[in-house]
Amino acid sequence: MDYVSWIHSKAGHNKIFLPFAAKILLNAEEKIILQKRADKRVWNISGEIMELSFFS
Fold this sequence. Notes:
Elements: H1 3-11, E1 20-23, E2 25-26, E3 32-33, E4 35-36, E5 43-44, E6 46-49
């Protein structure tokens, strides 16, 4: 179960607040640098979702 599905399983179908930040990094050749996600084994831009526990 992904994070958003897990939150909806706890909060129902109420709106949820998920602050998200992403960045695009370029190397010296101006190629985009990606990171490989360990959980889904796919390549993505670097980013982060702030968990609700951060605010408590």
